[in-house]
């Protein structure tokens, strides 16, 4: 089970409490009545579906109910970081602020023989 | 002339008993409740009007007597009064901008108590309920099996499980299964 850090609850919670909300940082055009059908299609329907890091909206629907943004690796399903809605994209090269380090078997016991 | 039909309100879970020696399940008495939404600038006035300090830290609650304010989200609280006081009138008397919805009859609650209460609830709830992580007074909206619940720890071995009344047979049933498992 995945644990996702909610930036509002300030705690890691089970994925069962969350819903995915699609791509993050999609800016709605301010001149909606003037844009062409192609431009509207690009804004409304077309997504990159990248293999690798994706910035997504998530909602803590069975918790605080808030939307927030997350950077997730679509290959490993690992959450790199989460941050509150409205905040700019974080620098993923910095150390993420998502809770304590995970205690892996390798870290505690050394590499498997 | 035909007799007038008189509607009586059924208490959900009325008469139900369940659980095990490790975790006793008791349907809670009817209480009044409001779902409260308000901005940060209204918190102090609402706290004064309700007579209970609205908590602003995640997963915390505040209680005055038998009235409890549970933090659900950054601007959202569940206020419960076990003496059925008129919380809507109390909130309205604050005079500040807020949204209050009376959910007294939407919600019902099950009291889970006993040394196996944590295990019984964890049978359907993914949260860490150990005392260090979920201390007395902690509260959280979370999920229990397929139903959304609000969990409130009132004592080291006692939880109040708030759920919607239409989900209450499911919640009570799953809690009963968990309570029986907790006895082994």
From TrEMBL, chain A:
This is Sarcosine oxidase subunit delta. It comes from Sinorhizobium saheli. It comes from the Bacteria. GO terms for molecular function: sarcosine oxidase activity. GO terms for biological process: tetrahydrofolate metabolic process.
UniProtKB/TrEMBL annotation, chain B:
GO terms for biological process: sarcosine catabolic process. GO terms for molecular function: sarcosine oxidase activity. Transmembrane segments: none annotated. Pfam families: SoxG. This is Sarcosine oxidase subunit gamma.
């Amino acid at each position: 089970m995945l644990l996702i850090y909610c930036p509002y609850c300030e705690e890691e919670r089970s994925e069962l409490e969350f819903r995915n909300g699609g791509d993050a940082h999609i800016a709605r055009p301010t001149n909606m009545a003037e844009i062409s059908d192609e431009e509207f299609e690009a804004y409304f329907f077309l997504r990159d579906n990248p293999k690798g890091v994706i910035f997504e909206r998530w909602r803590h629907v069975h918790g605080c109910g808030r939307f927030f943004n997350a950077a997730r690796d679509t290959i490993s399903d690992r959450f790199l970081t989460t941050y509150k809605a409205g905040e700019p994209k974080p620098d993923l090269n910095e150390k993420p602020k998502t809770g304590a380090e995970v205690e892996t078997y390798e870290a505690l016991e050394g590499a498997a023989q | 002339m035909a007799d007038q039909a008189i509607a009586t309100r059924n208490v959900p879970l009325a008469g139900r008993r369940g659980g095990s020696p490790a975790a006793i399940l008791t349907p809670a008495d009817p209480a009044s409740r409001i779902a409260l939404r308000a901005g940060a600038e209204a918190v102090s006035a609402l706290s004064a009007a309700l007579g209970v300090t609205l908590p602003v830290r995640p997963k915390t609650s505040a209680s005055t007597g038998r009235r409890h304010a549970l933090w659900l989200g950054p601007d959202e609280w569940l206020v419960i009064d076990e003496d059925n006081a008129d919380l809507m009138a109390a909130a309205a008397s604050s005079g500040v901008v807020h949204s209050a919805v009376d959910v007294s009859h939407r919600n019902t609650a099950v009291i889970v108590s006993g040394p196996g209460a944590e295990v019984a609830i964890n049978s359907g709830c993914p949260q860490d309920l150990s005392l260090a992580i979920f201390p007395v007074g902690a509260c959280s909206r979370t999920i229990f099996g397929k139903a959304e619940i609000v969990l409130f720890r009132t004592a080291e071995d006692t939880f109040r499980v708030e759920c919607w009344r239409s989900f209450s047979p499911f919640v009570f049933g799953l809690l009963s299964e968990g309570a029986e498992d907790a006895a082994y």
